[in-house]
Specification:
This protein has two helices and two strands, in the order H-H-E-E. Helices cover 57% and strands 9% of the residues.
Amino acid sequence: MSYTETLSTEVKGAYDTKGTPPMSLSWIDISLLTLLICLAAVLMAHSLMYLNRRDAQEVRQNRQATCRRHEWVKHESAGLICHLCGKIPG
């Protein structure tokens, strides 16, 4: 048996009787995988936005908690606001 005959029988062994490779993906499989990857990306983006918002809220609360003496200034859209920490009275 020559090298080319051995190679051709090894290649034929990798395919089933129809001539297609085993475990081939259909268009439905590919579209579902794409959908799942997109869903994971959207969930990851929203979780990062949520964590950033929570972190900013925690920083703001810590800054307001450490402000000893508030310096109130008049702000046109919010009324009174502390110049040092950004706290609104109340």
